[in-house]
Amino acid sequence: VTSRPRRKVSPSKSVFINCPFDDGYKPILRAIVFAVISSGYYARCALDATDSAEVRVAKIAAMIGECDWGIHDLSRVEIGISGLPRFNMAMELGLHMGARLLGEGRHRRKRALILDAEKHRYQAALSDIGGQDIETHGNDPEQAIRCVRNWLSEHRARGTLPLPGAAAMQADYRQFQTEADALLAPRRLDFSDLTHSDFIFAVRDWIAARAEPV
Amino acid sequence: MVASPKKKARSSRSKPAERAVIYRGIRIEPAVGKRSPLARAIRDGFREIAEQARDEPTPA
Lengths: 214, 60
What we know:
The complex is a heterodimer of chains A (214) and B (60).
Chain A: E1 14-18, H1 26-38, E2 42-44, H2 57-65, E3 69-73, H3 88-102, E4 111-116, H4 122-125, E5 133-136, H5 141-154, H6 166-184, H7 196-210, E6 212-213
Parallel strand pairs in A: 1-2, 1-3, 3-4, 4-5
Helix pairs in contact in A: 1-5, 1-7, 2-3, 5-6
Chain B: E1 21-23, E2 26-28, H1 37-55
Antiparallel strand pairs in B: 1-2
């Protein structure tokens, strides 16, 4: 049995999201994904192929290579139960920056948005990233939408229409959640129960239901 | 006389490709991959909600 080939996605339209995949972070990840899709881009992350938190560095490196854009959330780089911080996000940011600094061709055009929970917190742990696009979301999903929207808007190609404002995007996200919850409740499911893949389709389909065909 | 070959019936498995849409002036790219049954049900639900909203009379 042969499967249909996966549609090729343009790197210029692809945003790699580097973040934790635990339940505590999920509301922020989902808000970021919503902002990316409603800005006209594809949201890519290590969960694309599997909903497991077990991911391999080769897969992540390949995905970073396929995306001109990267969002790296360092807000969970903090001392955990083990007494050590999680370095995965910082390492993936390093991969992205390495591709930009040492890679060839389109890799040199890669752009990164670095997110954290508090302003200047990164300076204590990763001061070398100063000078990059660094924004804080305060662990608030709506603020994460604002950060992503503003960053993508700032780097929008010449001649393209401006993105909707952050307030409009935040309001859309609230409405999307309300309508998704209403559809899921009769199935005894909760919005947070959706797999990553189902969530991506739901965002795209919610937008498509309100949109005009091209 | 040889009968003209019958047009091949479209396979029930081949679906039209997803298209980009315009929302709030922004081109939203088509989805990639295959929807789960739950994702398909959510899509149909969103379409119904949007159609109901369009059908509702706007206040004067």
